[in-house]
């Protein structure tokens, strides 16, 4: 997930990905099938791990509270040390 986050889909090489996971290419293919499927799993993990504040915001009773909650969650997320800045994962043209 971190490799895609920092380098984007196109910028993440197979060597980058296998090095980060500490596995060889054949293990990556066996586990994920291809780079696109690995990207989808990484994005799913990103959403589940780092974007939990979004559903909370949508549960707020008013539009104003929803927007405020989403903005506060975004600021907290982006100001957390260690998180790369900007979008988590560059758009994957192969992923639709």
UniProtKB/TrEMBL annotation:
DNA-binding region: 13-32
Superkingdom to which the source organism belongs: Bacteria
Domain HTH tetR-type: 1-50
PROSITE patterns given in the database record: HTH_TETR_2 (PS50977)
Keyword set includes Transcription regulation: yes
Assigned keywords, A-Z: DNA-binding, Transcription, Transcription regulation
GO molecular function: DNA binding
Pfam families per UniProt: TetR_N
Keyword Transcription regulation: yes
Entry-linked InterPro entries: Homeodomain-like_sf, HTH_TetR
Matches recorded under PANTHER family: HTH-TYPE TRANSCRIPTIONAL REGULATOR YJDC, TRANSCRIPTIONAL REGULATORY PROTEIN
Protein name, UniProt field: AcrR family transcriptional regulator
Organism annotation: Tunturiibacter lichenicola
């Amino acid at each position: 997930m971190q490799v895609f986050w920092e380098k984007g889909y196109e910028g993440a090489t197979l060597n980058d990905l296998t090095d980060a996971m500490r596995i060889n290419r054949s293990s990556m293919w066996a586990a994920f099938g291809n780079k696109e499927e690995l990207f989808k799993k990484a994005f799913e993990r990103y959403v589940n791990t780092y974007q939990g504040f979004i559903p909370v915001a949508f549960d707020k009773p008013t539009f104003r509270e929803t927007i405020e909650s989403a903005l506060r969650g975004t600021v907290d997320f982006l100001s957390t040390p260690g998180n790369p800045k900007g979008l988590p994962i560059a758009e994957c043209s192969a992923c639709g």
